[in-house]
Amino acid sequence: MKNQNTPPEKSLSAPFVYPNMKIAFILLITCFAAWGVAANMTDPLVKVFSKIFTMSTFESALVQFAYYGAYFCLAIPAAFINARYSYKAGVLTGLGLAILGALAFYPASVSMTYGFFLAALFILAAGLSILETSANPFVMTMGPEGSAARRLNLAQAFNPVGTNIGVFLAATLILPNLNTASPEERASMAPEMLLSIRADELNSVMTPYVGMAFVLMIIWAFIYFMRVPKSANKVNVDEVQKIDFVATLGRLLARKQYRWGVVAQFFNVAAQTCTWTFTIQYVQETLGGTEASASDYLQYSLIIFLISRFVMTWLMGFFRPAVLLSILALLGTALCLYAVMVPDVTGVWAIVSISACLSLMFPTIYSIALDGLGSDTKFGSAGLVMAILGGAVMPLIQGATIDEYGAIISYVVPAACFLVVAAYGMFSVKNTSV
Q1: Closest CA to 257 of 380, 134, 119, 388
Q2: Which residues pair with 234 in a beta bridge?
Q3: Given this model, what pLDDT does residue 230 score?
Q4: Which of 99, 342, 344, 419 is 20 to 30 Å apart from 128, CA to CA?
Q5: CA–CA gap between residue 148 and residue 368 (Å, rounded)
Q6: Share of the chain above pLDDT 70, in %
Q7: Residues 232, 86: contact at Cβ < 8 Å?
Q8: Cα 379 vs. chain centroid, distance in angstroms?
């Protein structure tokens, strides 16, 4: 009698290896949406904290350094969790840590300390790092390797659903509750009045994050009771004992396709984070208006991102992913430079349109870089998640550029990042079959 955990015969037409993987896939989609909510609810905080604590753009950009820096720090531990236990264990661990980080926003709002908020963001992002390191390869192993890139793009298509929710929550619960007082007016206020205003503003920051913690608890419970075949999810004990990190790292670095994929992912995430983090500043510098009105354009960006994810997944049925990656990266550079040279309403829409280019990039680079890694996929996945460090480093550079030259000129930073992604796309067209 055939063991129920034995996978059925694979075929390129079958979407999943195991019959009950469809339910697991749907549950994982909620995780893709969840980290989208967190990431894009966090983007406006750079502007928010800059105003609340009256600090420079460079200082407030430490929000992204804490957030994406956590991704860098926790990716390797996540890979060990996945290798020693299972992808499901990694997902549950990541969700649990993210819940703790989101709940930490409450004591942070009480303390009214910028450093406490950065610590809460770090813990939240640490959990999301483990979650993302586990969920991405989990989705890829649910079906035939030949359709892994398309399956991951489909799952990632629900990430912008979360990003739109995140921006919506920031635009409705945080930004409208910022006091309109200028930095000069705040400086002249009595300490008691300033503390009262700051407490109200930070309470508005705290509310959506604590609410998200309770949603993540529900997702955690559903995934905990999710049944996954052991042979699809758990590593063989002998395989675990044979883990040699140094040897694995050597094999990964020896593969140009993977090595340059990590570099490309670094600059892709950098371009994405820079574009969205400073959209509000660009719109205000170009068109004027309040933070809340400028955030409408960030919402438009993410709607385009959402629609484009599904469009790009469909186009992959006709064009090689690497070809699409090259074209869209070059277009991203062109749109950034246009926004720099033409700082008017058309420049604003150029910034908004960059999201169409970004929609394809993360899952495509991810799947190209991991293609053919076999047993090294778990640690290869960790390296690509560590590349999210680009979202920590480059916003600091763009923030310093804004402080010195303004938000308009600063978009030369993501323009340069897109060129690196384009180079990887061209390399992949010539050297891979993806």
Answers
A1: 380
A2: 86
A3: 57
A4: 419
A5: 10
A6: 89
A7: no
A8: 19
